[in-house]
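Quick illustration, no need to memorize.
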Amino acid sequence: ERIAITSQGEPSGKHAYSISDGALLVCLERSLTPALIRALAAYAKEKSTARMICLDAGFAGNDQLKTNAVQQFADAGVTKFQTV
């Protein structure tokens, strides 16, 4: 299921894909931001998402953003986060 990601209640124009009612969340956005990561983590927590996949290119080489994403997803209960 394609879901629209909102940031602070406003549409962000970004999308992710929820598989098996949120058990797996896939984000293929090529431009990830801290606000988008927070929104994805909130969705993951709400849906009890176990696994999250993002495009590595979406982090644009920003290791700090990726590290923060790993922590936010872990805090949301995601047990496996990976980039492709």
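The radius of gyration is 11 Å.
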